[in-house]
Design goal:
Length: 100
Amino acid sequence: MGITPRILAYWIAFGPHGPRAQAPKGEGLRIAVKVAQLTAVSVALFYVIHLFAKPQPKTMSKEWQEASNEYAKKINPIYGISAEGYEGKGFVQSPPAEKS
């Protein structure tokens, strides 16, 4: 095998083509733009879905959750909210309900 066939064989085996090819110019920018577009679409879709969603159930109000705490204090005196020395916030996880 002469030098030229060896060079050609090397080029065919290990040359910059197929999966080893260089990325085209501007590909990184195109990917960044597409990611930004899809992120904007997902945010818009999120807000459209929440625009047409039903209001939160009444059990998500802070007042309801505080009443659940009072009820839970009478349930089990061994552990949880009704245990001696309990200092957690219990079932309260929501801000106070807005008056409308």
